[in-house]
Amino acid sequence: MALSDTIFALSTASGKAGIAVIRLSGSRVKSIFEKLAPIAHIKTNFMHFTNFYDPQTNTVIDFGLCVFFAAPKSFTGEDCAELHIHGGLATIQAVIKSLGEIPNFRPAEPGEFSKRAFLHGKLD
């Protein structure tokens, strides 16, 4: 695990749900966020309603809410984002798959968001 990596993970329980939240953290979050949810003027700490696009094919995967948290005022102390998507398994899998295809962007290891928060002095 390298802190220079940009990571993502499903942060809600997997299974049937109305909403699923996917969390992103790291130095490349803003550029990745802009590819997934091309919002003209991203406001920090503001919930945006948008379509989510597959960065490889530019097709719409889903629509929902997203929010960007700028470092150091985030849980991990890094740039972070959350994607609030529909909770169907197919939708979750499609978003996770498209995120996994972005170069130098990887799934988080268990506890990695909390570890980053600790290393950035957000938890003791």
* Total count of helical runs of at least 4 residues: 3
Strand and helix order: EEHEEEHEH
Give the N-terminus to C-terminus distance in angstroms. 20 Å
| Extended strand count | 6
| Helical amount | 10-25%
Spans of at least 5 consecutive residues whose pLDDT stays below 50 are none
Rg value: 14 Å
Morphology: globular
- Fraction in beta strands: 25-35%
Strand arrangement, major sheet: 3-4-5-2-1-6
**Would you tell me the overall average pLDDT?**
91
Structural class: alpha+beta
What's the main sheet like?
6 strands, mixed
Description:
The protein contains three helices and six strands; from the N terminus they run ββαβββαβα. With 124 residues, the chain is of the alpha+beta class. The longest helix has 12 residues, at 89-100. Helix content is 23%, strand content 31%.
